[in-house]
């Protein structure tokens, strides 16, 4: 969401649950050759080479691959998804393209969800809920952002 969410919401969730995320994702990350864990730095390093990025793009959900294809492939050209993802993997802005595709999926879902909320809960409850979300967002802006400690 662009409006009504605390901008540090994800960081707050991750920071408070870091140990649980480590347990949950350790096996997955150990089996992924494109990711290297640097325990002394407490960081993950991802293979940003075109080949590494291509492998990662090919493992994305089909819906996200298709959305990337629509963003990159000009209308009427109808190239193969694999060909387009190979092109995106070689683009220095590969991450931005993926982020744009994710944002477009989330945006359409959020708009639909908001419309359903108004239809099912009614206008007054929707306005009341939105006001509470805006207050929470405002309080988040006033707090000093904390940097999560990874250990």
Q: Please, could you describe this protein's structure?
A:
The protein is mainly α and 151 residues long. The chain is built from seven helices and two strands; from the N terminus they run ααββααααα. Helix 4 crosses helix 5. The model has no long low-confidence stretch (mean pLDDT 81).
Strand content: 5-15%
Distance between the ends: 30 Å
For this structure, the quaternary state is single chain
Largest sheet: 2 strands, antiparallel
Give the helix proportion (percent range): 55-70%
Return residue spans where pLDDT drops below 50 for at least 5 consecutive residues.
none
- CA radius of gyration is 19 Å
Using brief descriptors, characterize the structure shown.
mainly alpha, 151 residues, 2 strands, flat
How would you summarize the topology of this molecule?
Elements: H1 9-16, H2 18-30, E1 35-38, E2 43-46, H3 50-58, H4 62-72, H5 81-89, H6 94-121, H7 123-142
Antiparallel strand pairs: 1-2
Helix pairs in contact: 3-5, 4-5, 4-6, 6-7
Task: Give a short synopsis of this structure.
The chain has 151 residues and is mainly alpha-helical.
């Amino acid at each position: 969401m662009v409006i009504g969410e605390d901008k540090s919401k994800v960081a707050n969730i991750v920071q408070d649950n870091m140990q649980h995320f480590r347990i949950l994702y350790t096996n997955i990350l150990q089996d992924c050759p494109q990711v290297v864990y640097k325990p002394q730095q407490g960081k993950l390093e991802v293979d940003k080479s075109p080949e590494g990025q291509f492998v990662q793009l090919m493992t994305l959900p089909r819906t996200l691959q298709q959305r990337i294809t629509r963003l990159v492939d000009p209308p009427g050209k109808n190239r193969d998804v694999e060909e387009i993802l190979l092109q995106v993997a070689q683009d220095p802005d590969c991450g931005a393209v993926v982020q744009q595709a994710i944002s477009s999926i989330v945006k359409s879902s959020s708009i639909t969800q908001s419309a359903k909320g108004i239809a099912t809960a009614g206008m007054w409850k929707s306005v009341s809920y939105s006001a509470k979300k805006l207050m929470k967002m405002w309080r988040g802006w006033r707090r000093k952002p904390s940097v999560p400690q990874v250990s």
